[in-house]
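User: Please run a holo structure prediction.
Assistant: Happy to. Please share the sequence and the ligand.
User: Here you go; the ligand is 4FV.
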Amino acid sequence: MNFSILTIFPEYFDVLKSGLIGKAIESHKFTVDIVNIRDFSQDKHLKTDDYPYGGGAGMVMTPDPLVRAIEGTDPEHKAKRIYLSPKGKTLNQNVVESLAKENNLLLVCGSYEGIDERVIELCIDEEISIGDYVLTGGELPALVLLNTVARYVDGVLGSSESTSEESFSNNLLEYPQYTRPAEYRGLKVPDVLLNGNHAEINKWRQEQSLKITKERRPDLLKWI
Ligand code: 4FV
């Protein structure tokens, strides 16, 4: 799987050198190329933004550097081209699982008030939002999307970890987790987890997931 990320702040993605994702990239489990949109600006000052037609606060990213960057990075439109925006479909585990089936994802990070609408018309396959709040740029949403999709790439998660036993994997929130010590500040680990009876443990975990989901996210239960 390859991720191409188009941004005017490439340094935002230095974080990809660390953690589980950093190790996975190092060991070529998947590839990431960071593309600086400014490199595609024909403007003598490499400008990539301008004032919005119709007035209003802030600036808008100009179409040409973006279109050149997208077509320059993905000339045969092999990638699924995604623009991260609050107007997009909300990212959830089902969307993540469908994106994880793609070989090439091209992520466009907007800045300022957003990008010229004609870029979306001409080049974008899908708009995706990470949530109903406004950020200063699309870089963090792109990092969120990459992190959650990369977890589905073979070999990224260690053998002990899996995407099947976790929150939202079956539309339920995950059961409570415990580790040593068996008692901490007077709080004990539930006995069922200490008795080693896996049928009992799985039953308790299913009950806990259902109970917690009913309490905190009853909206998820309509999918079950
Ligand atoms: C966003 C979101 C988001 C809007 C204008 C970047 C900002 C600025 N992207 N999910 N929520 N984007 O707030 O994806 O350019």
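The pocket of 4FV is lined by residues 84-86, 110-112, 114, 129-131, 133-135, 137-138, 141 (CB under 6 Å).
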